[in-house]
Specification:
Layout (H helix, E strand, L loop, with lengths): L14 H9 L5 H5 L5 E4 L3 E2 L9 E14 L7 E7 L6 E6 L13 E11 L2 E5 L2 E4 L8 E4 L8 H12 L11 H6 L5 H9 L4 H30 L14 H6 L6 H15 L5 E6 L5 H14 L3 E5 L3 H15 L6 E4 L5 H13 L4 E4 L13 E7 L6 H8 L6 E6 L5 H8 L3 E5 L10 E5 L4 H13 L3 E5 L14 H11 L5 E4 L5 H12 L5 E4 L12 E7 L6 H8 L10 E5 L5 H12 L3 H12 L1 H4 L19 H17 L9 H11 L8
The structure holds adenosine-5'-diphosphate (ADP) and magnesium ion.
Amino acid sequence: MDLSSSVTEIKGVGSKKAELLEKLNIFSLNDLLAHYPRTYQDRTNIRRIRELSNGEEALISGRVLRSVLTGNPYKKPVLHILIGDGSGINLEVIFFNGKWLKDSIKIGEEYSFFGRAEIKYGKYSMLHPEYSKGDAEGSEAILPIYPLTEGLRQSDLRKWVREALKTVADDEEYLPEWLIKKYNLCAHGYALRNLHFPNDRQSFAEAKYRLIFDELLMLQLGIMIVREDESHEKGIAFSKEKSADEFVASLPYSLTGAQSRVIGEIMNDLESTKAMNRLVQGDVGSGKTAVAEIALFKAVKCGYQGAMMAPTEILAKQHFAEMKRIFEPFGINVDFLGGNLTAKERRAALARLAAGETDIIVGTHALVQPDVKFANVGLVITDEQHRFGVNQRKLLTEKGDSPNRLVMTATPIPRTLAVILYGDLDISIIDELPPGRQKVTTKAVTENGRIKAYELMRSEVKNGRQCYIVAPLIEDSESYGARSAESIYEEVKTGFSDMRVSLLHGAMKQAEKDDIMGRFASGEIDILISTVVIEVGINVPNATVMIIENSERFGLAQLHQLRGRIGRGSHKSYCVLVLGSDGEIARERAKIMCESSDGFYISEQDLKLRGPGEIFGTRQHGLPDMKLADMARHSKILAASQSAAKEIIGSDKKLEKAENSALADAVRRLFGGSLELQL
Ligand code: ADP
Ligand code: MG
């Protein structure tokens, strides 16, 4: 038996259990050992029932005072066991369908239970806890708690993991020796054992450090290998003689200081022989589009084609319409490529692009399809970059001979993650809003406050303004406890029968969505009820009110994006957050939204409130999931593993050396097919 053996080689794992393990994606011993505990039960830390708090996972120990089966004979009986630990409060342990346990947990004897405490109306309980008598589990002080699937028990997994660990020596290692020494890592075998069954806190800490290091190392190696293909030192240098000044002069406003500075940085890049690789971060409404347009103008002036990719059809269309309008007077041909062109239209657009008739192409990810060919693309821009995966970005760049690259985002990416994603990219920040912008007045209300919000909406529309109402759901049946766009639409249509009310949501046909968005933009719709489809980039400066229903269901960063749809013109704007529940966190988050309009601050607070996993999740960036590592929390390990990755790649670009072969396998395993790694 070795790590590649099937789990069925473990004693006690038959085909039935193996099927259950498959549900957890566990096929081999290797998979089993990579099934990390989700938490631990610290057997040295027995809690008193009285001191438990609601929702906490804890270990208690006490005497069985009572044990009864309830339920009528036709239903599966429920076992209720009352435990006392002398702390003055008893706890009820509940097992549905627990008849079979009745005789094994005996009245008058001591047991320990590990589970999630629930405290309701002064009653303490635990549903389906893990239990053991005395120290039946053996002598370990810290026991792993694994993610399970129905039919598997913690004790099963522990037993099998112990078996699997027998095939791994403590000094088992797959990384080169110099790396282990230099980065002061414990051996891989030791790390595995101690992650599952820690000897003590110290060895656990060492083990965790090592395995997080490994994860981040693999992640970065994978990206570096891909990037190797795209980061050509030499790029296209645009002529210094050709400036974009005449275009800048044609804009109806003058640039903000921040815009000018960022454009200066971009021009420097464009005019140098090194390929530009720049990220522009700027809060919603800071005027990133103008910056992109100026760069595109420069590209065209210098004889190159430009491309701009946006994450949604609506946004791409909007960019297209605007660029067509402002570039045509300069004799610049702007074209569009999206998902809903007819085959004929698409063919024609592709032909124009390949022939060089098109100067600027705007589109969705339709731009990265293999049959899209440019005549000579010199600049590629991705808007709201965080919506695209590494692969899409790479594919667009590959359309040219190392074109200059600009990515724009309103979602601040932490420096650490940005560096991983974009390598040694340069970052420009637009940290100033155009003048005359007023802060959007934001209020959080409960259901009762909706009437007032509606009054506000009515008076704004009477003054010629437009309004958004945003709901978390499309229709009522999707989930309980939240208002849906459809039901709000019915309500508002009746209540505001003298106004033009429309509904927009993601399940509509593209053409229909475009039509509605277009009519809203041209002022033919007064009140738009919508789901988050309007979140990204839509620009209707005449809209001054946004009511967000069940705002507690949205992330702060998302609320900030949504709110960024208003306050884009010179009129005073209002955002009303209607809270459907009044939990502590919901109120806390609403408060942050009311106080701040700074996207960077808001996302920082978001991070604090809901933990880093969601925002810095790698998945949204098209990367494999991390099991233990967390970019935000493990920044030191990240830095160490990054320098290790650079060192490795520095002497072995494609991981072809013998000493790196196990490493190459691990990287391949982590990325699967998702990055099309050419190792
Ligand atoms: P975002 O950074 O969110 O993409 P946009 O580029 O859509 O923002 O710009 C938001 C609005 O601000 C647009 O209506 C745009 O015309 C306007 N705008 C951009 N730059 C300036 C400026 N320097 N002065 C005044 N208005 C500006
Ligand atoms: Mg934008």
